[in-house]
Amino acid sequence: MEADFAIRLAEKFETPFYAYDLGEVQKRTQELRAALPLGARLLHSFKANPLPAVAQQIRLGGASAEITSDGELEAARLAGHDLREALYGGPGKTNHEITSALAAGVRWFSCESWLDLQRLSGAAERAGVDVQILLRVNPAEAPQARLAMTGVESQFGFDESLLLTVDARARLNLPGIKIRGVHVYFGTQVASVEAIAQNTRRALETALRLETALGFVCSVVNAGGGFPWPYANHGPTLDFSGMQAALTAVWQESPLHETAELWFEAGRYLCASSGSLVSRVLDVKPSRTRTFVVLDTGIHHLGGMAGLGRIPRSAVTFQNLSPQGGAEITADIVGPLCTPLDSLARGVKMPSVAPGDLLAVPNVGAYGLTASLIGFLSHPAPIEIAYLHGEVVQVWRWRTGHQQLPQVPSSL
Ligand SMILES: Cc1ncc(COP(=O)(O)O)c(C=O)c1O
């Protein structure tokens, strides 16, 4: 982001903050839509960034909502989505979540298991409505993705083999349920156009096999996507030229293109580039042979799952917005939490920094704040600022903190 603009924001607002450039969101949404086959539908996966200002911009770019919780449902409503077009997915949906989604108008669900299907059927019957189901499938073949979610044992979707058993057709025949299609999400950060096209081909083949075996009319294939973008650094981006042609060829090869719609869902590609995390240096401390730069942000605001070692750490880039011009230093960039895991980068070479300097991390508009450890150590969540053409348009803060519930049962 522009240093001058970030400095002006830091003068007006407290640090740390996330700042999202809605112009970037607009550009990426247009870019991705233009790289999909004509007529394909794009869904915004709220898990990447549920901020209503960002989601609204993606909606204005023509995407529907892909949501997985009460919170994402509310964010989609705040972003102005028509919830009748939203797709509600995720393993382990509760009766409460399904019922509130139905009450809000959601009718399309991605179904992950037999029990999920029974819950959806029960809730649909109680609400007196029909729900449209995409069967989320875990095909046998491993995908081409950096974080694979199919082709391996996983909690996501039905193993394809389970849907090809003799009793599957009867088990799908439940009140309130209309099986409308197939959903395959292969994984995230798929590294090439060829791999995205190959995954899409596999999703279409899977859908065709299931349509034949189960005897439903497949009117939707949600082929996922996994469209990549660098995380927290200026790494290379994927050249999309050739993607529309490749995906269109795959789509036209499939007999389903006569009768079905093709859907894709994306999170990181749509919003990653829009977001920067701006923080202030609180301290610069030598310790034996190392230098620690202590920020007012850390793994509670960024990359928390990586911080805990659950997923690989990305190389994090810091832009010093107020450089002092001193000699280069080698530093560990850490946060204010009381754990050595609260480290955003180790041994990075950077121009010297001083307490009070502002540092910005680029490309964190996806899987930033809400993918972090916001509750850990009870700091307030940073504010989130959405701006367009250099003007702040909305400012939000994620709520944290304890709230005592009024109802305490007198006896158990
Ligand atoms: C089912 C599903 N759909 C969509 C996404 C969004 O993926 P991405 O942000 O890589 O586009 C994810 C991410 O984990 C997912 O699990």
TrEMBL record:
Which intervals hold domain Orn/DAP/Arg decarboxylase 2 C-terminal? Answer: 20-365
Cofactor(s) named in the record: pyridoxal 5'-phosphate
Q: Where is the Orn/DAP/Arg decarboxylase 2 N-terminal domain?
A: 22-272
Lineage top rank: taxon: Bacteria
**What SUPFAM superfamilies does the entry give?**
Alanine racemase C-terminal domain-like, PLP-binding barrel
The record's listing under InterPro entries reads: Ala_racemase/Decarboxylase_C, De-COase2_C, De-COase2_N, Orn/DAP/Arg_de-COase, Orn_de-COase, PLP-binding_barrel
Membrane spanning residue stretches: none
Keywords assigned by UniProt, alphabetized = Pyridoxal phosphate
For this chain, the family text in UniProt reads:
Belongs to the Orn/Lys/Arg decarboxylase class-II family.
What is the name of this protein? Type III PLP-dependent enzyme
Name the source organism: Prosthecobacter algae
Q: What is the lineage of its organism?
A: Bacteria, Pseudomonadati, Verrucomicrobiota, Verrucomicrobiia, Verrucomicrobiales
